[in-house]
């Protein structure tokens, strides 16, 4: 075999080990969070890397007309894949392609530390937890660690800690929630994504992950009402519902800001999970432009709010469904996996 043909064989995607690793990163990326568990993404392995794109077949046009939250979910999937890649000893290299897709490839090899292994373990363990969340039992360093995780992705997690700011935020969330419920568009769009026990579909929010309206409206911070006949009762855990609350902000409001916010979201959630904490969302004011602007000015945020998170020690939540890898991943012609 000539040297040339050996180097041909060493081309990234013909390298079976690398192809297997890329496939595994893509499999891990599916565990990223997405609105209503819509999983609005598709992945292509080609030219030695993975290309991540949004999939408009899973769009939510009524509540996400610009596709902002779809791109947030894509950013989260990209970040999860980078965590998987780091845990296998490779530095991730990221490139945004002219068509808006994000290409992830392996850079230099590196030592794998305990922290990388811990973060990787949380990829499939992390859960959105809409039950009571208690900030008082969080390890003391967690607020700082969460803010650092966001900062590493170029976004800001503004923690809302003073009594006055928490009150303003709670009032804004409640006002937004009431407007959205009255409009009905959110509920209309949400209904098709709620899943009763035994539903075989690989997306959507299981009703066991939701809480009844009493839970939503009795809490200081009103959560979106996802309840169905089989939702959990309002208070199914004895612990207090007193979460740490934070707003994830970006400097601008472009698609690259949304991608960064999605990466920051996944980084914050995985860091929280490493510390035993769960999180969920209070995004209602972000979905209404006037209230989103009010949120930014009331809390003196450094830029547009992308997501509002509640974080704390929660309970056990079953794994929500995910699409099979074959339904989200394809291979470019240079990267077909070897036949068995
Ligand atoms: C951009 C974005 C917006 C979301 N908005 C909400 C929300 O408003 N309310 C909520 O309860 N969950 C929200 N979620 C969480 C998803 O419902 C959750 O990620 C999905 O059901 C999958 O569950 P998992 O996070 O436990 O894997 C959001 C997630 C993302 C990425």
Give structural notes.
The chain is an alpha+beta fold and 340 residues long. The protein has 2 domains: 135 residues, 3-Layer(aba) Sandwich (NADH Oxidase), CATH 3.40.109; 171 residues, NADH Oxidase (3-Layer(aba) Sandwich). Helix content is 38%, strand content 16%. The protein contains 11 helices and 11 strands. Strands 3-4-2-1-11 form a 5-stranded mixed beta sheet. A hairpin with a 5-residue loop joins strand 3 and strand 4. Helix 3 packs across helix 4 and helix 3 crosses helix 9. It starts with a helix and ends in a 9-residue tail after the last strand. The N terminus is likely disordered. The structure holds flavin mononucleotide (FMN). Flavin mononucleotide (FMN) binds next to helix 3 and strand 9.
Question: Secondary-structure map with pairings?
Answer:
Layout lengths: L2 H7 L6 H14 L11 E6 L2 E6 L13 H20 L2 E7 L5 E8 L4 H9 L19 H11 L3 E4 L3 H21 L1 H6 L3 E2 L9 E2 L6 H6 L25 E6 L5 H20 L3 E4 L7 H10 L6 E8 L12 H4 E3 L9
Parallel strand pairs: 1-11, 6-7
Antiparallel strand pairs: 1-2, 2-4, 3-4, 5-8, 8-10, 9-10
The protein binds flavin mononucleotide.
The site of flavin mononucleotide (FMN) has 18 residues, from α3 and β9.
């Amino acid at each position: 075999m000539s040297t040339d043909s050996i180097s041909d064989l060493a081309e990234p995607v013909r390298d079976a080990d690398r192809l297997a690793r890329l496939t595994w990163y893509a499999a891990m990326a599916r565990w990223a969070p997405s609105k209503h568990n819509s999983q609005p993404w598709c992945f292509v392995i080609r030219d030695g890397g993975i290309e991540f794109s949004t999939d408009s077949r899973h769009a939510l046009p009524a509540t996400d007309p610009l596709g902002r939250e779809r791109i947030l979910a894509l950013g989260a999937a990209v970040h999860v894949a980078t965590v998987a890649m780091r845990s296998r000893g490779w530095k991730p290299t990221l490139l945004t392609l002219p068509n808006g897709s994000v290409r992830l490839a392996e850079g230099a090899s590196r030592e794998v530390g305990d922290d990388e292994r811990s973060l990787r373990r949380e990829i499939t363990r992390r859960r959105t937890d809409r039950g009571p969340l208690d900030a008082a039992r969080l390890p003391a360093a967690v607020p700082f660690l969460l803010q650092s995780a966001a900062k590493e992705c170029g976004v800001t997690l503004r923690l809302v800690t003073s009594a006055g700011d928490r009150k303003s935020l709670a009032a804004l969330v409640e006002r937004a929630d009431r407007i959205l419920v009255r409009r009905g568009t959110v509920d209309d769009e949400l209904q098709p994504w709620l899943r009763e026990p035994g539903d075989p579909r690989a997306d959507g929010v299981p009703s066991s992950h939701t809480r009844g309206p009493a839970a939503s409206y009795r809490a200081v911070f009103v959560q979106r009402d996802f309840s169905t006949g089989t939702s959990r009762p309002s208070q199914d855990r004895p612990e207090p519902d007193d979460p740490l609350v934070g707003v994830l902000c970006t400097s601008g409001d472009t698609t690259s800001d949304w991608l960064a916010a999605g990466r920051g979201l996944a980084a914050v959630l995985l860091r929280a999970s490493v510390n035993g904490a769960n999180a969920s969302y209070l995004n209602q004011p972000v979905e209404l432009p006037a209230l989103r602007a009010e949120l930014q000015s009331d809390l003196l945020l450094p830029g547009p709010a992308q997501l509002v998170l509640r974080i704390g020690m929660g309970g056990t939540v079953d794994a929500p469904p995910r699409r099979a890898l074959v339904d989200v991943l394809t291979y470019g012609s240079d990267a077909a996996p070897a036949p068995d």
